[in-house]
TrEMBL record:
Keywords: DNA-binding, Transcription, Transcription regulation. It holds the Pfam family cNMP_binding. The keyword Membrane does not apply. Residues 149-220 form the HTH crp-type domain. It comes from Methylobacterium durans. This is Transcriptional regulator.
Length: 227
């Protein structure tokens, strides 16, 4: 854990080794420290190149982290949902920008605040490490998705991933737009819409009228596409 925190630039804030309790597998309570701030939809949280002074936990809403390419195209790195921690990066500057997808509330922690990280038996430090490991796993899955999967398979992977992050719910309210999904999956909006419509015709999903929610009618078929 110390290696992970050191790489993220957080270990100096702890002043050395983590307390023994930081290695306990028990459930971690909500950290008591940290200020809260509300962001409106599409409001910038930080920009690429900003100095890293804070990291964040999503209390409600959703956040996208992304990078603008030299030709103006946008690649969305990840979507951060309630409970997720983001903004922890190696180095002194943010490599990605972050915006609120919808009206969002964040808990904001100062990266250099040793009392916040070490308090409550290292609960927050444990959360940060867990967030880093989950983020690494999702990044590896995303790399495989972009490199090897068809449009339908990418959509299937995306929907299964969201369902699992939302505690296995089969009715998913999508906070992000189809343009966001396209920029995350390396597709065009037309490909996203076409793939969703095809999955609906096959009876794998249902798309209610508002088009911002998806019902997984046949999760097993989605998982076969995701395999």
């Amino acid at each position: 854990m110390q290696t992970v925190l050191a790489t993220a630039g957080l270990l100096p804030a702890l002043g050395g080794a983590l307390p023994d309790a930081a290695f306990s597998p028990r459930q971690t309570p909500e950290p008591k420290a940290g200020s809260r701030r509300a962001f409106t939809a599409d409001e910038e949280i930080f920009a690429e190149g900003d100095r890293i002074a804070f990291f964040y936990k999503v209390a409600s809403g959703a956040v996208r982290t992304y990078k603008l390419l030299s030709d103006g195209r946008r690649q969305i790195d990840a979507f951060h949902l309630p409970g997720d921690i983001f903004g922890v990066e190696a180095g002194e500057e943010h490599r990605f920008s972050a915006e609120a997808v919808t009206d969002t509330k964040l808990i904001i922690y100062r990266a250099s605040d040793r009392s916040t990280l070490a308090g409550d038996g290292g609960c927050l430090a444990r959360e940060v490490v867990g967030a880093l490991l989950r983020g690494l796993e999702r990044a590896q899955d995303h790399m495989m998705l972009l490199g090897r999967k068809s449009a339908r398979e990418r959509i299937a992977s995306f929907l299964i991933g969201l369902s699992e992050r939302m505690t296995g719910e089969e009715s998913i309210n999508l906070p992000m737009s189809r343009a966001d999904i396209a920029d995350h999956l390396g597709l065009t909006i037309e490909s996203v819409s076409r793939s969703l419509t095809q999955l609906e015709r096959e009876g794998v999903i249902a798309l209610p009228t508002n088009r911002r929610s998806v019902i997984l009618r046949n999760p097993a078929a989605l998982r076969r596409l995701d395999a």
